[in-house]
Amino acid sequence: MAMIALGTESDMLDHYQELHKSKLSISMATFTQGAHNHHSSQLPWFWTIDIPKDTNSKSWLTECMCSFFYCIHWLHAKAAQDCWAEEEELLTCEFQWVVNYFQYRAKIWNKIYMDNKSAGNLGAACYVARQQAVYEQLGEQGELIWQGMNQNDGTFNG
């Protein structure tokens, strides 16, 4: 409408079409990771215009834009894959850290147990022995769960 108000020639008006809201939306199928057959997706007319009119066909731009959207899709998928790989590595480390912490606490409780037992403080020694057993059991359960999750590599890197 603005171009008409400015007195644009008819051949220019034929070249540039009116923008409609429906043409401004992006098909999410183009960006969805599991979507297939993007080559049949229709791009809005303004992605395929030949501004300098130096080519006979607009197909090269459509192919270029489709290739561009494939690249964006690939980069999005690659970023998601990298995020999941990083998440897996972090969870593996966190799991090992928790088991290491349980084993560390069991050693600390064992030292306290030995100190209390040698001092003749049997009440405290019984309590400390129970705490040591709890942490040892947590560490053993963690290692068993780790081995169950990693059938291929049963070794714990703790």
Quick overview:
By secondary structure, this protein is an all-alpha fold. The protein contains five helices and no strands.
Describe the protein in words:
By secondary structure, the protein is mainly alpha-helical. It is built from five helices and no strands. It has helices at residues 2-5, 10-15, 21-24, 59-119, 122-149. Helix 4 (59-119) packs antiparallel against helix 5. The model has no long low-confidence stretch (mean pLDDT 77).
Main sheet overview: none
Give the termini distance in whole angstroms: 70 Å
| SSE run | HHHHH
| Tally of helical runs | 5
Overall outline? rod-shaped
Which blocks of ≥5 consecutive residues have pLDDT under 50?
A: none
Q: Give the oligomer, counting copies of the same chain as homo and different chains as hetero.
A: single chain
Rg, nearest Å: 33 Å
Average residue-wise pLDDT: 77
Give the amount of beta strand, in percent: under 5%
The total strand number stands at: 0
Structural class: mainly alpha
**Range of helix content:** 55-70%
